[in-house]
Design a protein that fits this description.
Helix content is 59%, strand content 0%. By secondary structure, it is mainly α. Helix 2 runs parallel beside helix 7, helix 3 runs antiparallel to helix 7 and helix 7 packs antiparallel against helix 8. The protein is globular.
Amino acid sequence: MPRFRFSALLAQHDLPPSFLYLAPVLPIVQVMWADGRNQIPERAKLHLIIQNHCQALSELAGGMQVVSPDDIERFDQAFIARKPDLGVLQAFIGIATELLQDQTYTESACSDSLYRRERLFHACLEIAATCPVEMDNSLGEMFAQRILDEERRFIEQVFELLPRSD
């Protein structure tokens, strides 16, 4: 079960159990680090996304605090403030992706949490668009590449999580 594996990985890295609720943030972190750096506007936007996600979880929990400000700060230090070990980040993202594919999480999620796949997808797009790459206008403004190829690849992976309409 992905939840237990994620919790075991947290314990292995001496991270708090509440990070389980921040699992949907990890694909966004991956998009932020795609260019190898975290830029101040990306980090600020990511903090807003995390605040909104935690507020949504708190509302879902009847007003109880699900992730403490201290744990959010620890998450920032572990994954956002400085570049995390890519192997460790990938291990967390792999299990987080499984969690996000688990219908028991996504069906009960409130509309403002990142457990809603559409919301997660849009958050990834927001991070990618926050600090666009140097634009190559050789094909004209309409075809200028604003999102790094690596960011695009990670966003496509999140897109695969979206429910398919038959």
